[in-house]
Amino acid sequence: MARKTNYGFERREREKARAQKKADRQRAKQEKSDQRKAAQGETEGGVAETC
Question: Is the pTM of this model over 0.70?
Answer without folding.
Answer: no
